[in-house]
Amino acid sequence: MNYKTKQVITVCGIVLFLFGCSSDQKNKSMIDTKNATVNEKVTSLLSKMTIEEKVGQMNQYNGFWDVTGPVPEEGNAKTKYEHLRKGWVGSMLNVRGTENVRAVQKIAVEETRLGIPLIIGFDVIHGYKTLSPIPLAESASWDLEAIECSARVAGTEAAASGINWTFAPMVDISRDARWGRVMEGAGEDPYLGSKIAKARVKGFQGDDLSKNNTIAACAKHFAAYGFSESGKEYNSVDIGTSTLYNTVLPPFKAAVDGGVRTIMNSFNELNGVPVTASKFLQRDILKDKWNFDGFVISDWASINEIIIWGHAKDKKEAAKLASIAGSDMDMEGYVYIRELANLVKEGVVKESILDDAVRRILTVKFELGLFDDPYRYCDPENEKKSIGNKEHMDAVLDVAKKSIVLLKNENNLLPLKKKGQKIALIGPLADDNNSPLGSWRLGSDDNTAVSVLEGMKNYKENTLVFEKGLDLFTGDVAFTQQVNVNTTDDSKISKAVAAAKSADVVVMVLGEHGFQSGEGRSRTKLDLPGLQQELLEAVYKANKNVVLVLNNGRPLAIEWADENIPAIVEAWQLGTQSGNAIAEVLYGDYNPSGKLPMSFPRNVGQVPIYYNYKNTGRPNTEQHVFWSHYIDSEKTPLYPFGYGLSYTTFEYSNLTIKGGETFSVNDTITVTVDLKNTGDVDGKEVAQLYIRDLVGSVTRPVRELKGFELVPLKAGESKTLEFTLSKNELGFYDNDGNFMVEAGDFKVFVGGSSTTKLEKSFELKN
Ligand code: BGC
Prior knowledge:
Elements: H1 3-20, H2 38-48, H3 51-57, E1 59-62, H4 77-86, E2 91-93, H5 98-111, E3 119-122, H6 135-139, H7 144-160, E4 165-166, H8 190-205, E5 218-222, H9 241-257, E6 262-265, E7 269-270, E8 273-274, H10 279-289, E9 295-297, H11 302-309, H12 315-325, E10 330-331, H13 336-345, H14 351-367, H15 380-386, H16 390-403, E11 405-409, E12 422-426, H17 452-457, E13 463-467, H18 493-501, E14 505-511, H19 532-542, E15 546-551, H20 559-564, E16 567-570, H21 578-586, E17 650-657, E18 662-664, E19 669-677, E20 683-693, E21 704-713, E22 718-725, H22 727-730, E23 732-733, E24 739-740, E25 744-751, E26 759-765
Parallel strand pairs: 1-2, 1-10, 2-3, 3-4, 5-6, 6-9, 12-13, 12-14, 14-15, 15-16, 18-26
Antiparallel strand pairs: 7-8, 11-16, 17-19, 19-22, 20-21, 20-25, 23-24, 25-26
Helix pairs in contact: 1-5, 2-14, 3-13, 3-14, 7-8, 7-15, 7-16, 8-9, 10-12, 11-12, 12-13, 16-21, 18-19
Beta-D-glucopyranose binds near residues 69, 93 and 220.
């Protein structure tokens, strides 16, 4: 019996067992609080709670079958149920499905002294059952409405399955493609990342958290996890305060301003302090400075890891440090439940720390409507109706198309002709129904994505021949498992070459499997894994008309392909409707409009690479070797941030700063530019505005994105675009975390990528 089967059997047994334990008791905690405000209700409930019950609210247990971290020794079902019945559990994660959720909720509500409902959390990262593209891919759409809609679909399906709370969005900025979790974020830029963070929070939470189709969001991982040294998972982080304030924190701040109800802390340390124990981050910045009034959940057993990092000598000290620092809930760590009540009784941790944490947790539970009806998310009829319906399928197809980035299209090889063509479809990922689902998709079923092969079969007037060319792996692939990449068996390559020889055009689907990125999947190479490069070169030798479709969860270094292959399409892992989206783009039924949210390096040695770097003292004195560069590679990326082509072309002109060239630091500056679709098909362009603050008391990046607009334009059509720059865009954080705008000279750049040349200057005066 494999691990998963075993766990499912356990859970079925548990559900039956639990339903046997019926009770007439009602939700006792709400009896005297019906017409009061949430605050009054929380105060009243808090006044009735024992220390143990308070600690219980701060305790979260993993459910019974999905495991998303190492299982602690205490983590057995018997202990979990005992604690549940005592009212020592405030939340569970990885319990899903209305029946399972109802079962555990029933214990919390009917068998505990106060009947406080559980809040049920789950990693709804890019969809629940119906999957959207992985978040990095979706970010390439720069389409905030589509991104919000995708989160709404995810939230609706999760809520229908009993879930109240998602551990998303991940808002970690990362500049290092080696880090597997870049697939979960919005890429390298804090401005784009902040806009996307807000859109995702809005999508999950809606306007009213108490509706049964909205769930609480969680911005994670607070903070700086995306800067794991050398891209190695769970590693130390060593960044300066300027990067912390200007790059890492802004998307969290945006999520808080957007009303996010929870924040997850993180596995990394910062300045020698594991962030789960960081009072500076959690209490001083998040709760005091930003007035965040939701709650903070630890990452999986990250309170325990304070000990392993060498910052606390035992669980007692870890519980003390984390609670005082402002970690309100312990995820599957068994530290608070074991230590916190005694720490309060001994006077080491003030009871007011518990009161603050529990107040925050109960507030969110009230807002979710769980006290009014703890089973409001447990309606099996709604579960059937809301999950995987046509509306959701259409929404994820829409965002999947918008996420595709056209990287190269020499001689207009794309779009493909719809008739009379013999097309060879080649590659280990071309017929894969699983990989496009990406990582982090525990709520969905395996093998439910539309493959590229299936998508292309819809275009019936061409002849389509499929050859796998390679097996990517030896053995199984799974979310919790290391994959074994095939590096030896090239026996299928010859058949692929033969198919290529007799074809008009070859479409190759290569890249990373969905389980080659995500948590615990750092890489030291950014090439095409296994024998795919060999396959690509062999096929290209046989037929030069190759369209390379990349499936991947991170930027890849594909310098050879860029030099040789005429057309390259970045199609990431696009979720349930992947193959349909890709086929529509290949055939020109959708004109690609995506732009890269992360720079693609030429080689792994350039990493971390990002567009908003500092000038250095020696940026370009090319007459000798003493300047900032490499002797064996160019220093520019292969494809820069913000880059992406279309089947049409766009022209920018007449960049104008309205009202002259000198402004006061308090002014709002209006910038206009003309954008024209100069090709002969309709298309959409992401127009981007960057600034450079030339002299700063803290040096400023060579470019910073400060505005963008997604502009649909018919063939030949033009439009004047208007951007505004005010304090928010022109200022920055100093090294004490104060936001300020400094007088001085600025440049503004507008265009279709971060390397645009169109620029104007202006000056700010005090
Ligand atoms: C991850 C979190 C996730 C949690 C619960 C951890 O290992 O870092 O992002 O939400 O597990 O699954």
